[in-house]
Write a structure and sequence with these properties.
alpha/beta; 2 domains; three-stranded antiparallel sheet
Length: 330
């Protein structure tokens, strides 16, 4: 007999170590929404981060989850969830909670239930926030032993100086750049040239998602990765010819279910895969780490940017992130 499910929704605040700054602004804490499914015997959890860039608020995400709670008694399951809720943070939290609950019920890890190989440790990028060139250089120098640094750019001016300063401070690290839609068609070529000179290997979302046509007509000396321009499978095909890679984030796809399907479709279309995250705890990283097993670039450093992580969080050995234990998720 299938036991009825109940859903608890919590909002949690996790202080960031210092601050996290991108082209759209800065924040000093990660506000996450946790969905917890229970059948009175087993519990499954999922975590999401509402994102204002996609018109999400903590209140709207919590309300969407509460609305879904009323449909659990009517038999809503993970498959039905994909039709019931639109892609986004709320569906991500509930989808991942379903996966976790299914694993607990079956006594088998999520990767087995999904038909995947056992996950292995991965090298993750470590993010350097945008700031004055010297400030960024100081941060990069402190992280120069890490093999992969993700550099936040997207200022109205000065990005050439920023990336030059970072390269000088971390000469051995591989650099990738995230402009967060902060460049324009007018300064695109100049910024791409500066990044190429600094040995950058990938650039995320240089232009606004609704104004990125120039990427199809200019020479791209560095692989360009879609972030804000890509959400789920339905948005993939339009990217071919403009982008070389896609950043799959569970808060955009609406959970692990769609993210796994999206990774398959992206590969079929010849797009490289990057797996990214919001600033959040290990509970949000654990399911993303399964998608990251087939990614060319992994950016799951959210917990490293927090003042502290939740109990039973992922183990990070420098930039090497290990798979989740059952005590955390899956």
């Amino acid at each position: 007999m299938t036991l009825p499910l109940s859903l608890a929704v919590r909002v949690e605040h996790w202080p960031i170590a210092g601050s996290f700054t991108i082209s759209r602004g800065a924040k000093t804490e990660a506000v996450v929404v946790v969905a917890e499914l229970s059948d009175s015997r087993h519990r499954g959890r999922g975590e999401c981060v509402p994102y204002a860039r996609y018109d999400e608020t903590v209140a709207s995400v919590a309300a969407a989850l509460e609305k879904a709670a009323g449909k659990l008694a009517l038999g809503l399951d993970r498959s039905g969830l994909q039709r019931e809720m639109r892609p986004g943070a709320a569906r991500n939290a509930l989808d991942c909670a379903f996966w976790d609950l299914e694993a607990k019920r079956a006594g088998r890890p999520v990767h087995e239930l999904a038909g995947l190989e056992a996950p292995k440790p991965l090298i993750t990028a470590y993010t350097i926030s945008i700031g004055a060139p010297q400030t960024m250089a100081n941060a990069a120098r402190a992280a120069a032993s890490r093999p992969l640094l993700k550099i936040k750019l997207g200022g109205a001016q000065g990005d050439s100086e920023r990336i030059d300063a970072v390269r000088a401070a971390a000469p051995q690290s591989e650099l990738i750049v995230d402009a967060n839609e902060g460049w324009t068609a007018g300064n695109l070529a100049e910024n791409l040239a500066a990044c190429a000179s600094a040995g950058v290997t990938l650039i995320e979302q240089p232009l606004p998602a609704d104004n990125d046509a120039a990427l199809a007509t200019i020479q791209r000396p560095i692989a360009i990765c879609a972030d804000e321009s890509v959400h789920d499978r339905a948005t993939l095909r339009a990217l071919v010819g403009r982008y070389d890679a896609v950043n799959i984030k569970l808060d955009k796809t609406g959970g692990l279910t769609e993210a796994l399907a999206m990774a398959e479709e992206a590969s079929r279309l010849g797009l490289q895969i990057m797996t990214g995250c919001m600033v959040a705890t290990s509970l949000a990283m654990a399911p993303a780490a399964l998608v990251a097993q087939r990614a060319k670039v992994v950016d799951l450093d959210g917990p490293l940017l927090l003042a502290k992580d939740r109990p039973d969080g992922l183990r990070y050995d420098g930039s090497l992130v290990h798979p989740a234990t059952p005590a955390l998720w899956g």
